Amino acid sequence: MKPKVTMIAWNQNDNYVVTAVNNHLLKVWNSYTGQLLHDLVGHADEVFVLETHPFDSRIMLSAGHDGNIFIWDVTKGTKTKHYFNMIEGQGHGAVFDCKFSPDGQHFACTDSHGHLLIFGFGCSRPYEKIPDQMFFHTDYRPLIRDSNNYVLDEQTQQAPHLMPPPFLVDVDGNPHPTKYQRLVPGRENCADEHLIPQLGYVATSDGEVVEQVIGQQTVDQDEQGMEPSILDGMIRQLQLQQDQQFGAEQESASSGPQNGEGTPRRG
User: Fold this and answer.
1) How far apart, in whole angstroms, are the C-alpha atoms of residue 32 and residue 12?
2) Which regions are annotated as WD repeats (predicted)?
3) Residue 144: beta bridge partners?
4) Residue 55: which CATH number?
5) Which site in 15, 16, 34, 71 is 20 to 30 Å from 127, CA atoms measured?
6) What pTM value is reported for the model?
């Protein structure tokens, strides 16, 4: 195999350079002389994460597609701590990214299965206040492009940035209680009735019908005189504001300079 460097990082005081090579070794170099000081052995697959400690120049973190997370002492070339990201029933999860906290007491990692792993000193009780599974109900909704090639949400025909804040759901699309919905930016001060999403049955690409959070009332519901959803009202209000703003701009443009010297407008 032809050796290739997959990642490189300086330690905190720049005395050492650590390189990750595709033969699964980490190499520690003297940054002034270029001398190879240590080979760090432990990974079984390619490494794409190298993170230096925010203030301790001895410590370097590495993580890779083999699911291994190592804390190294690069001055001695030794392994300090090791964690293997084993997922029950699914094998190991490749680690895609890691970052230290500013105080150096914690670090967080994300893996290929959508997990956020938090390591560190102290009590884990604060993290027990939130659900294990947190997704936005719009995370996997399809997008389309309009005639101007702008992106729209397929279901609501709205630009994603104009849509109301999404709801927090679990991995199966079931909404979390209202106390968790207030964690979403934009919903902090909402009344309880605004934090209860509308549920409906949605057909998946495989033809399976599942109950999920839906974002807009259907035409059939309008015809049947069913009670409109809170989310529908918010979307329609946003659309009305946008239409009014667009109308005001058009009126301003028509009453502006007629000699062609006015500000150019995008169609």
Assistant:
1) 15
2) 1-39, 40-82
3) 152
4) 2.130.10.10
5) 71
6) 0.60
